[in-house]
Amino acid sequence: MSFSLATWNINSVRLRAGLVARLMTEEAPDILCLQECKSPVDLIPLEGFRALGYTHMVARGQKGYNGVAILSKLPMVEAGALDHARLGHARHVAGRLENGVVIHNFYVPAGGDKPDREINEKFGQKLDYLTDMRDAFHADRPERAILVGDLNIAPREDDVWDHKKLLKIVSHTPVEVDHLGAVQDAGKWVDVTRADIPDGSLYSWWSYRAADWDGADKGRRLDHIWATPDIAGAAHSSRILRPVRGWDKPSDHAPVFATFDL
Description:
By secondary structure, this protein is an alpha+beta fold. It is built from eight helices and 14 strands. Strands 3-4-2-1-14-13 form a six-stranded mixed beta sheet.
């Protein structure tokens, strides 16, 4: 069984339903994981996606904020949803394919502007969320699993446009990178994207604040695809679809792709 998978922070699935449909039409991933859907589940424009072959969905949503969804051409059943850090946010959903592979779709809190939990509650929530992710994977070691999503951390020096300048900027601070590393270690997760593309700068997010995001190229790799060691070797063809960031009225994230032969 071979399937392609993409993960994309869409920044409002209803506002950008046309962009989702365009990606489905032009790239046709078998499974599309979305974050920051900003919609209750019953208002996700599913009928249009079904018409393009995406007949299965598992999702968690809330009005105006957060929200995660997995849209699939392949049969899929829900495999749970976790409320890490007890935030009451729609930030995780999991789906199980017929071959037993479980796909976890996460939207980790962004963490606000100041990397100090004493003055910034949101930063503390982000660290607590990551700690709960770590503890959950320690308690129940995943097997035949894929983890995707907007993890809101660029872990490597070449995952950001300027390592030294971003060391004190939320998403690349040492404490966040350490917390994400602990999550990865707990589940023995393999970073599929970097296994495929081990060298060189690689970004999936460019700020709306940049007048010329493409020319300035001040990006960060915030969006990830991981797999457990028992299936990581089956992953290939990783890529980040940078041109999508330049579509009309885009998300500030670009989709990340991988293919699995299982």
